Amino acid sequence: MHSAREVFVQKGFIGVTMKDIIDATGISRGGIYLYFDSVEAVFTAVIQQRSNRTYETVQQAVAANQPFETVLTDYLAGHARRLQSQLDGSLLRATYEYYFTHKDGATVDFQQQQLANTQATIEMILDLGVTQHVLKDQGLSGIAANWMFLIEGMSTLALTGGIAAAQINAQFTLMRRLLPYAQTN
């Protein structure tokens, strides 16, 4: 998966062939086709693995009852790093190429599931804030949806070179200010 990911990072989605993946992984043609029948199948597995890793990292932090601010800061820092490195080491170009070239129901479902996973991860972090009495339980699902759309929008801008690190940080600061922090006396 790591080698296949690197191929997609370097070439995007459109320019990748099964031969590219086979060459990068060092696995035989038969070995690859034993598990994956197409470039699309490899790509969606790579994306799913990345999504699962992010969700599991947050889930572990929540299960360990790490401080809300730490979990939130780490999550946003991960997005900031990803947004600042769009042209160098990101799967975003490949992801958009995939979505733009595949309009079938399965692809739309996959895309919607990826967005839902992002929102669920954010909700998990915000729920931790409620559990730790840092946040009020007010409109958090809507806030999580808003954050997901904002991150997705910043991803598009980062991909086209239209967003700077200062803008990313300013947006994350604004996102934090919109949280319903609990009153402490």
Structure write-up:
The protein is mostly helical. The chain has 9 helices and no strands. It has helices at residues 2-11, 18-25, 29-35, 39-63, 68-84, 92-101, 105-131, 140-159, 165-177. Helix 5 packs antiparallel against helix 9 (165-177). It starts with a helix and ends in an 8-residue tail after the last helix. The model has no long low-confidence stretch (mean pLDDT 92).
Number of DSSP helical runs: 9
Would you count the extended β strands for me? 0
Low-confidence segments, ≥5 residues, pLDDT <50?
none
The main β sheet shows up as:
none
Helix and strand composition category: mainly alpha
Average pLDDT, to the nearest integer? 92
Measured distance between first and last alpha carbons: 50 Å
Oligomer: single chain
The topology string of helices and strands comes to HHHHHHHHH
Write a brief caption for the model.
The chain is mostly helical.
How are the SSEs ordered, and which strands pair?
Elements: H1 2-11, H2 18-25, H3 29-35, H4 39-63, H5 68-84, H6 92-101, H7 105-131, H8 140-159, H9 165-177
Helix pairs in contact: 1-2, 4-7, 5-7, 5-8, 5-9, 7-8
For this entry, give a set of tags:
elongated, 9 helices, mainly alpha, 185 residues, single chain, 74% helix
